[in-house]
Amino acid sequence: MLPEHDQTEQLDTTPKGISRASTILHSGGLVAMPTETVYGLAGDARNPAAIAAIFAAKGRPAHNPLIVHVAGLDAALELAQLDPTARALACHFWPGALTLVAPLHAAHGLAPAVTAGLGTVALRMPAHPAAQALLAEFGGPLAAPSANPSGQISPTTPAHVMAGLSGRIAAVLDGGACPVGVESTIIGTDDTGRAVVLRAGGISPEMMADVLGYTPASTQSATITAPGQLASHYAPRATVRLNAAVPAGTEVWIGFGPDCAGADFNLSAKGDLAEAAAQLFAILHMADATGRPIAVAPVPERGLGLAINDRLRRAAAPREA
Ligand code: AMP
Ligand code: MG
Known about the structure:
This protein is α/β, with parallel strands linked by helices. The chain folds into two domains: 9-181, DHBP synthase (Alpha-Beta Complex), CATH 3.90.870.10; 240-316, no CATH class. It has helices at residues 15-26, 48-58, 73-79, 84-93, 129-138, 158-165, 205-212, 273-289, 305-316, and strands spanning 9-12, 31-33, 40-44, 67-69, 98-103, 120-124, 142-143, 171-174, 185-189, 195-199, 217-218, 240-241, 252-255, 265-266, 294-296. The strands form two sheets. Strands 1-8-2-3-7-4-6-5-9-10-11 form an eleven-stranded mixed β-sheet, with helices on both faces. The protein has a four-stranded parallel β-sheet with strand order 12-15-13-14, with helices on one face. The longest helix has 17 residues, at 273-289. The chain starts with 8 loop residues before the first strand and ends in a 5-residue tail after the last helix. Bound molecules: adenosine monophosphate and magnesium ion. The site of adenosine monophosphate (AMP) has 22 residues, from β6, β9 and β10. Adenosine monophosphate (AMP) binds at residues 64-67, 101, 115, 118, 120-122, 145-146, 183, 186, 188, 198-199, 224, 226-229.
C-alpha cells in the first residue's frame, strides 16, 4: 500500500529543513533531494519498507536496482569492495556524477531490494551541498533513484518533482535547479578488471581516460535490465523525432547550437554540451507541455553529448504498452 500524503512538505536547505528531512528518512519516509545530476527520491537504504515505498511511489519494476548515495569513500568501503580501478575513479571523481558498481561485503546491511538481489551495489557520493548535508545529518546510506514516475522525464527542479510525485512522497528539499542535469555515469568492471561504461552520464569517457590510462568502452550488461537501460525511458507523452534539422508540421522544435535560430527551445544557443545537458530535461518538460510532437536537432556524439543522445534516443524509442 502506498502511504497517502495530503501534502508533500516543501523543505528548504537550511539546517532546519535538512534536520526535518533526516527525521522523515529515519522514520522510513521518502524525501526528494537535490543532487548535482537530477533530483533523487531518497529513502533509508537499510530499511526494507522505505525501499518498497520508493519502488511503489515511482511505479518502478522491482528487478531494477537503485543507486546508493554515500557521504564519502569510507562509507562506500563499509558496504562494498572497491578494486584499485574503482578507488582511483572514486578518488578523482567523488564527489560527483560517477556511480561505481562494486561487489557487496557479506554484512552490508542494505535492504535486499536495493540491489534487486544482486551481489553488487551501485554507489555514488553526490557533490550537491544539500545532498551532502542530508547524508551527514542522516548518518547512513540513502537509496535514491530519480524522483519521477518510472519511465518519465527526469526531474531537475522541485516543480518537476511535484508534477510527478506530489502527494506520493513525504517531502521535497528545494535546492534549486540541478547543475549537471543528466544522471551519473555508471561504471562497472569487465572480466579483465577494466572499467566499462554501463550508462553514459555526467562524466564523459574522455574525462576518465587520464585516470584510467584508457578510454572506457560502453557496454550493455546482459544481466541488468534496469529502467536507465531500457529502450524506452525518459519519455514525454508526445512522440519525439531525432536529428531534425528543421521541424515538420506542428512539431515543437528543440535546437542545439547557433544554426537553430528559429527553434522553439535551444538546448544551448552557443553549442555548449554542458549547458545542453543542464537544460535537457527542463526543456523536454516544457516542450511536452505544449502537447505537440517534439523534434530535436542533432547533438554531437562526444563528451556530454553521449549522455544527452542516450537520453534522447530513449525518449524517442517506441513505448511498450
Ligand atoms: P537510476 O534509475 O538513475 O537510479 O539508476 C539506477 C541504475 O543503476 C539502474 O538502472 C542500473 O542501470 C544501475 N545499477 C544499479 N545497481 C546496479 C548493480 N548492482 N549493477 C549494475 N547496475 C546497477
Ligand atoms: Mg531515472
